[in-house]
Amino acid sequence: MSYRLLLMCGSIRRESLNRRLLSLAEGVADSSPGHFRASFLDIRRLPFYDGDKEVVDTPAEVVRAKRTVGECDGLAIATPEYNGAPSGVLQNALDWLSRPWGDSPLTGKPVVTLSASPGPEGGRTAQERLRGILMRCGAEPVGDPLAVPCADWLWDPQPTRFDSVLAGRVRALLDSLASSRPLAGSA
Fold first, then answer.
1. Residue 150's pLDDT is what?
2. What's the pLDDT score for residue 142?
3. Reduced to 3 states, what is the DSSP secondary structure of residue 63?
4. Are 85 and 124 a contacting pair, CB within 8 Å?
5. How far apart are CA 77 and CA 56, in angstroms?
6. What residue ranges of the chain have pLDDT lower than 50?
7. In terms of pTM, does the model score above 0.90?
8. CA–CA dist 128, 81 (Å, integer)
9. Are the beta carbons of 110 and 177 closer than 8 angstroms?
10. Phi/psi at 55 (5° precision)
11. Could you read off the pLDDT of 101-139 as tens digits, one per residue?
């Protein structure tokens, strides 16, 4: 049985450094056949959180996103850092996914966090805040956060070659996620 890994990117830019970092994570996951099954959750289509809509008729995109999160074994979330915090689009997704509190698909879900930034800290401050938000949502951050500084120099214009040291760090992070909790349906 494969570990169902869900990848979520807090940047909606097509050539985002964080999307590239998650693509590396997807490649690392796919390179261990039978161990991981990775897929992306696209949060760009989620409407702005609205408590009135939630009570009356939760949007179909939100229902699908919640089901997808509920069915995964763990999450890898990459966030850019905007003004020292995670992106608004990621916060919006977490606002939807964290409802209802205590019975959301995030409750008890193991999560690892990553960030890539052109800056010297690699998005470390945003990750610290993100991990705090995840804990408030009932999720379980595991492993050490992975921050990649000066990431704009790391990749070629085509995201086909990656630093093997970074791939090893991503593998260790994913392994910590997979070992944090047994697969759903196994025991």
1. 87
2. 96
3. helix
4. no
5. 29
6. 159-160, 185-187
7. yes
8. 11
9. yes
10. -70, -40
11. 888 999 999 999 999 999 999 999 999 999 999 999 999
Token readout for 52 is 């009135």
Residue found under tokens 């994570």: 25
Helix (H) or strand (E) holding 78, with range, is: strand 74-78
Retrieve residue 111's tokens.
Answer: 């999560």
pLDDT at 93 (0 to 100): 98
What does the alpha-carbon distance between residue 130 and residue 89 come to, in Å, rounded to a whole number?
Answer: 12
Question: For all residues of the chain together, what is the average pLDDT?
Answer: 90
Q: Are 137 and 106 in contact (CB under 8 A)?
A: yes
* Token pair 């956060």: residue: 145
d(CA 82, CA 32): 33
What three-state secondary structure class fits 37?
strand
- Following DSSP, what letter does each residue of 106-161 receive, concatenated? TTT-EEEEEEE-SSTTTTHHHHHHHHHHHHHTT-EE-S--EEETTGGGTS-SSTT-
